[in-house]
Design a protein that fits this description.
Helices cover 36% and strands 17% of the residues. The chain is built from nine helices and six strands, in the order βαβαβαβααβααβαα. The chain is globular, with a radius of gyration of 17 Å. Strand 2, helix 2 and strand 3 form a beta-alpha-beta unit. With 210 residues, it is α/β, with parallel strands linked by helices. The structure holds adenosine-5'-triphosphate. The site of adenosine-5'-triphosphate has 17 residues, from helix 1, strand 4, helix 4 and helix 8.
Length: 210
Amino acid sequence: MPEIIGIFGGTFDPVHNGHTETISHLMTLIPFKKVIVVPDVRPPHRQEAIGSFEDRLAMTRLAFKNHKKVSVEELGASRSGPSYAISTVKEILKKERNIKIVVIVGSDAFAEIDSWYRWKELLRLVNFVVMKRPGYTTPKNKKSFELINQKNEIDELVQKRGAGKVVEVKVKPLRISSSGIRENLGNGIDINLLVGPKVREYLISNKLYV
Ligand code: ATP
């Protein structure tokens, strides 16, 4: 059986417990060889990030420091243009043989799958695990709704070869978002319970998002 490599991309502007704790939970459900966390150099789907790539990368490294089997990588840092998932996947497939790639994504991000660059080709290369995000319901008229409602199971994704499976997973529900954290920081509200201690220290000592 090919080993399973997870890819978790995001802007991580900043990284928070909604990212780290859901990944920890997923690691108990899926036997990943490793999960590669990839901060986007340039976010493909929205406006520019507010934090610099260097800060976002440094905080993401701190957040996942003690997570066994998770590595934070600077994939695509040298590529010009937006950070597309398909380019990251191809970069990993060039280095690793006989693996199965699972792209990990929150339900809000997956809702826009049909606007991702070369998404049909991406679906032929990887499987998706979609983490249910509290407070977000996928609209019924979306392509993503149709894909999620094929009702694939985790066991199938783990045991069967091939790509193209989309599995929705109920992870620990955490109402935490990067935008909420930026807002709190801007308003002088403590973000103690929303990010790890090292990330909090970094945010405060570098006066980020104030
Ligand atoms: P925003 O404030 O714009 O919502 P964010 O918190 O979603 O930002 P991103 O870096 O955009 O942060 O998220 C990276 C990935 O993690 C996305 O696929 C997103 O859906 C997912 N994600 C973020 N927070 C959670 C959460 N609390 N539960 C599940 N998935 C999450």
